[in-house]
């Protein structure tokens, strides 16, 4: 009430100084604005009234918005690539790359190499980048630089961007937007010369709040009185019922209630109760989302008519039709190729006669290359697809015979010189391979670099060659080989940046799958035999233990010497062991070193490290090919050959490996981490991903409360099993997997992936899958939970033949 008394006591002086008649609340608001400006120390001159401060204020807000985004982007750019990047003529560099080096062949020149080296230095690249990536990086830096230039233009337009100028622009813009009386505006420069007023902005501000309070709460006053004409003395007389309130908070509450009431939300009934605000919020969220869901379900025909039983019948039909579709395509292709073959043979009878003649000969047959040349018109109608090594293509197929498409498999093993013959004979090439596996091992061995033109760079394999000229890439994400995704989890993290989609086994642990570490107190013959006989003998014991007629076994070694030692041991034992001898004879066993095992796979892989302490107890950090640059790729090849199980036979433990800081490659360090993962099964060594959502979290709590044991996020990839229910009779087995139509389901690109392929892959790994549909769960949560529990009970009573079904 002191503020009202203060205004009434100084009213005449205030009206004279500010040239404002305090006859209504609107003028009190103007008084408040002017008084605040004087207290802020803002100086307004007549010239200021001729400047468009509203536009300046808009530009100022635009400046801060853009400056924030610019500083954030610039900081991220400098953090990764350093400070020197924006000092480069990015516009010229971008134009040069986009126009001059658009052609892949131009990018093979020495000038492009120089530009690439310059860009690599500017950007601090540690890995090789393709043309498209480089163009994208420079384009991003160029856009940031242009953004900075635009911000500088705004700075010039605004002037000094300091605290006083910012405050002045915002203030003048505010009063010009709020004061409509031109005379008051014209008098502002004169008013602001008065710096000695004892003005209290808080007191005047109270009248603005008082005005709002009276406006919102007319119930305390006579409704017939107009607020703007309400005399302050009468206001004082009527404030007796309001003075106890925290007026400002009370007004905010009323504003909030008005907004809620206008939206149909009534909270009057809970005011004055002892209900906790957290419970109020939870109740509101529940009601809001229920109404939200009901609204959309009601207004969407598909959602409104959704029935899980009907939908699952449609899914079953789709699976059947999807399989039939593939079968129809296969038969259609065979039929069309047969028709083409018959048509070609009728059209070119002379070439058919060449084939029959050569086939009838017992000797003196023509060379294959010559025969192909004589039957070139019907060759692809008879055999539309050829499978051959690059060298055989050059040896047996003439240069006048062209293919539509050539496909290179395991392209990281193909040298450019080997590939040229096939590329020359084809109009299109598909290069398939894995950059994280072995390149050709002896390339450049006999190549004289001086023979090559200085504008051409020979790379070690065609994958690198085509990557360098910036061809488009398509990554294959689904990993099918490993029955147990623990087999691929390590490589997925350290070599493929967790980009592979893998599938877990229905067994938490099993003797028949996973990773096993077998420690042997062996001795490495350093400087002599370079073998580890104890490991070789242990490998033979493992073969005899693991072998059955339905599974294949592969043995991989880090060195050729250890491979020979194991071969000798296996041969020796097989003389007195018919089972082992039969296994060797029927091809169910191979023994290879790292250099020769790429492309192979077996049910069980036995990985013999070989290296260890010598007869003097000394252990060096020499692991043969793993120590060289790129040696980690050899490790990746070795540990990804197994379909079901890998057994590491080693004379060293992870703590024995102490990699020096100046090591040439990361192979030894990754070997240490892999052995640690094999020994401990430590999930921290690899990544675990969460696919949980509100529904799966609620199901988890309900099942735990029912007495079941449940694991979340079973598996090592992003598309894992959200919930795995542990078999009551076998704690190492998941009796049922729970999936929803949430994130994992949504991320599947096609219906075939969602409804057939993923289900088949999980079935192969022993899973029973129960699908929870969100609408079902929301409509009748308790019934869904009961059905899950009943399904677990039913599965517990039947045998393992039930595994691999969607329930």
Can you list the strand order of the major beta sheet?
3-7-6-4-5
Straight-line distance between termini: 74 Å
Computed Rg: 40 Å
Secondary-structure class: alpha/beta
3D architecture notes:
The protein is an alpha/beta fold and 807 residues long. Helix content is 52%, strand content 8%. The protein has 32 helices and 11 strands. The strands form 3 sheets. The chain has a 5-stranded parallel sheet with strand order 3-7-6-4-5, sandwiched between helices. The chain has a 4-stranded mixed sheet with strand order 8-9-10-11. A two-stranded parallel ribbon has the order 1-2. Helix 4 (53-81) runs antiparallel to helix 7 (131-158), helix 4 runs antiparallel to helix 8 (163-178) and helix 24 crosses helix 25. The longest helix is centred in the middle third of the chain and has 40 residues, at 308-347. The radius of gyration is 40 Å and the shape is extended.
Question: What is this structure, in a nutshell?
Answer:
The chain is an alpha/beta fold and 807 residues long. The protein has 32 helices and 11 strands. Helix 20 links the parallel strand 1 (406-408) and strand 2 (429-431).
